[in-house]
Write a structure and sequence with these properties.
Number of strands: 17
Radius of gyration: 29 Å
Structural class: alpha+beta
Strand content: 5-15%
Distance between the termini: 94 Å
Largest sheet: 9 strands, antiparallel
Shape: globular
Oligomer: single chain
Length: 761
């Protein structure tokens, strides 16, 4: 016994000895930029003049650029005045009640080419004023006040009104304009206690929490000795490449290449603030794998054109990862000095670092006057799009101009952006003459994405091919998976299964988007392994898609799903201040069969924003499920009063009125939904069924034929045409539509059987 007690004591002592260094080394803490300046004066000097350092500043005479000398600005008949009261900067403008009030400016926001102003509101909110200062020189049209929404009369209560929820800094802007942000939102009181270490984008925003590095610097020998290989100097995020590679010029191609595949945290460090994304963690670690903390937006309509060019305000990441530069190992700091943010060198020389000037910076390559705009690399390969009225931003996909795609897909191109008086086919012919074997001779993923967006007859085939093509950008392949939903047949199974084991996590995270609303057992079993993926975004999206399919799972899969659902719920609660997140939570609970919790989530969404129409529409649908259509109809009418142009609300109201046997009003509501959303074939189908039921067969066929022209791959529309034509005594038309269905789905035995039955009749 004595020996046993001695062994236990020894083990405990050794355990303490082993654990003590871990306990002594606490997690890194943020220390603020001032702690870095003394040891890094040159970097600090560069940073102080950068947009990062001036991303957000306290409003002082030194930081405010706008004219506050009793200046005035009027828009839609609403006057706004800007004045000074000592060191206070005062704005008098329309407030949340629709009446004018005076507000003190708390912070400036940005410096060039415009500056916005933040104003304190109750509940710890900062609101971004919708009138900005044009900081450009007067000769360029600047030095003036202007409205950020010049074509919209935004009334108090509108989410885009400067006092509305979509202009709240704490959610919309704070993450990327401060360092070590803690949003600190209290759902119970609908209030913020937001805090940060630095008011701007400072050192630790990129290098991570600095306390361990500061401690390392304090004990480092003086004078410093060279850092040994592998010594990370206590930095939380080591930004230097760890692959040991470098850049070498290939004299044959005139293009440099890396001697080793890039291994660096830099792309994942810059991306969160230079992309559209959904946060999955409240405070993701700086430099951690991107999809462990964020889910990037894909190449969706409104964000990107089908060929991947920027459309909405999407910043740089989603474009850059499409580029050959990204695939070759180029990172942000190859072109931009990381502290001052200026280009490494000016003009074409920045491209000349990797592209031999004698070969590419020449008339033989660009076919323009070298000193003119057409001789500048960025004008052809990084065309701009204007955001916030005055801000021209370069598309970072670094693409070869493809005016031929403009002709076929309706996308913009750099050629006709300059030659605005010429059509795209003119530019396409010119490029073809210069480069007979150029890019126009190769396929582009834009054709598949456009087919998927428009519901073209060959959409499934093109999307499958794109998903399986590992040479295409992962963001395009991931987008194709989402477009496959509701279009996939058995022929897509190979593409979806291949994506499940794809080496790129963005592709794997998009697999659940391809699933139907109620996936069968085979698909559930195929996707279930993603619940154990090493990347958080993949697990979260898999859990979202597989919620409610527990009956088709094994016990270990159910355990993995439960874990994934917890991660998903936590990810949604990161944005607990947004009604959209509570709507998502409600939808999740509904899939899990928990109607009471779903209703609570919808009600929370409406408590945060009483004008949140999607919350009303989904709560009305829950009323339908509970047999409370009268309450649902009242809720939908209220939604339509708030947003008369909301097609979803009109469609839901129409279906409710059908159930209430109010055919006349139902028909009008369904017609309105179809008019407001002509691109939605489901709304056309339902409206046509209602027309046919009301005896208006001719009008029903006209609606479906128009929908079929717009969406030739929509099977429901074709089935509707077949059924109505058959039942109305037009067998020839029914057979014609059935042949279209067989051509669309040649492997579907039900389609062939239907055609045979119609032939026998």
């Amino acid at each position: 016994m004595a020996l046993l007690r001695w062994l236990v004591t020894l083990v405990l002592l050794l355990g303490v000895a082993w654990l003590s260094p871990l306990r002594a080394q606490e997690a890194p803490r943020f220390v603020g930029a001032k702690a870095c300046a003394a040891c890094h004066p040159s970097e600090t000097s560069l940073w102080k003049g950068s947009h990062h350092a001036r991303a957000m500043q306290e409003a002082t005479p030194a930081t405010v650029l706008g004219d506050f000398n009793n200046a005035s600005f009027t828009q839609f008949g609403i006057p706004t005045t800007f004045s000074r009261a000592g060191d206070r900067f005062v704005v008098r403008t329309e407030g949340p009640d629709g009446y004018p009030h005076e507000y003190d400016v708390a912070y400036t926001f940005g410096v060039d080419p415009l500056q916005q102003y933040l104003i304190r509101f109750p509940g710890g909110r900062l609101q971004a004023l919708g009138i900005a200062w044009d900081a450009r020189p007067k000769a360029s049209g600047g030095q003036r006040w202007f409205g950020l929404y010049p074509e919209q009369r935004l009334r108090a209560g509108d989410r885009l009104h400067w006092t509305g929820r979509d202009q709240t800094w704490n959610y919309q802007c704070a993450d990327c304009h401060t360092t070590d942000l803690r949003r600190n939102f209290d759902l119970a009181t609908n209030a913020y206690a937001t805090a940060f270490t630095d008011v701007d984008v400072a050192c630790e925003a990129c290098h991570g929490a600095g306390s361990v590095h500061v401690a390392w610097a304090e004990v480092r020998p003086k004078p410093p000795v060279p850092v040994t290989p592998g010594d990370r100097m206590g930095l939380a995020n080591w930004l230097r490449p760890t692959d040991g590679g470098g850049w070498e010029m290939d004299v044959q191609t005139g293009i440099a290449h890396r001697t080793a595949p890039l291994a660096s945290t830099e792309p994942d460090t810059c991306a969160p603030c230079h992309m559209r994304r959904k946060k999955l963690l409240d405070t993701p670690l700086v430099g951690a794998p991107l999809l462990d903390g964020y889910l990037p937006a894909l190449l969706d309509p409104g964000y990107y054109f089908p060929d991947g060019q920027i459309d909405g305000e999407v910043f740089e990441y989603g474009s850059f990862v499409q580029s050959r530069m990204h695939q070759a190992g180029v990172t942000c700091s190859n072109c931009h000095e990381p502290h001052g943010l200026r280009l490494r060198v000016e003009g074409n020389a920045v491209c000349g670092q990797c592209h031999m000037a004698a070969r590419f910076d020449s008339t033989a390559h660009h076919h323009h006057e070298p000193s003119g705009t057409g001789g500048q690399c960025v004008n052809c390969h990084m065309p701009t799009r204007t955001y916030m009225i005055v801000h021209d931003r370069h598309d970072h996909s670094l693409r070869v101009p493809r005016p031929d795609l403009s002709a076929s897909l309706g996308t913009p191109n750099a050629c006709t952006q300059c030659h605005a008086d010429r059509p795209a086919d003119w530019a396409a012919r010119a490029v073809a003459a210069w480069y007979p074997a150029g890019r126009r001779t190769t396929s582009h993923f834009g054709a598949a994405l456009q087919a998927g967006r428009t519901g073209a007859a060959d959409a499934e085939r093109l999307l499958d091919a794109l998903i399986l093509d590992a040479g295409q950008p992962p963001i395009a392949r991931a987008t194709a998976l989402g477009l496959l939903r509701n279009r996939a047949t058995g022929t897509s199974e190979a593409a979806v299964k291949a994506a499940i084991t794809d080496p790129n996590p963005l592709v794997r995270a998009a697999v659940p988007r391809a699933l139907p609303a109620a996936p069968g057992r085979s698909m559930v079993q195929g996707v279930a392994p993603l619940l154990n993926d090493r990347v958080r975004a993949v697990r979260v999206e898999a859990a979202r898609a597989l919620a409610g399919t527990e009956a088709q799972m094994t016990d270990p899969q159910r355990v993995a799903l439960a874990r994934g659902l917890r991660e998903l719920l936590n990810a949604e609660l990161v944005d607990a201040d947004r009604s959209e997140s509570h709507l998502n939570i409600g939808l999740l609970y509904l899939r899990l069969g928990q109607a009471t919790q779903a209703e609570e989530a919808y009600q929370t969404a409406l408590r945060l924003d009483p004008r949140f129409v999607p919350g009303m529409v989904n709560l009305a649908d829950l009323d339908r499920m509970r047999g409370r259509d009268q309450e649902g109809a009242e809720l939908l009418r209220r939604a339509i009063a708030i947003e008369p142009g909301n097609a979803d609300a009109w469609h839901a109201l129409g279906l409710t009125l059908v159930r209430q046997r109010n055919a006349a009003d139902a028909l009008q509501a369904l017609r309105r939904a179809n008019e407001l959303a002509p691109g939605n074939p489901r709304y056309a189908y339902v409206y046509a069924v209602a027309l046919n039921s009301a005896g208006m067969t001719k009008q029903a066929i006209a609606v479906l034929e128009q929908a079929h022209r717009q969406h030739p791959a929509d099977r429901d529309v074709l089935l509707g045409l077949i059924t109505i034509a058959r039942d109305s005594g037009d067998p020839d038309a029914a057979q014609r539509y059935a042949r279209d269905l067989v051509a669309l789905t040649p492997s579907d035995p039900q389609a062939r059987l239907l055609l045979e039955q119609l032939g026998r009749r």
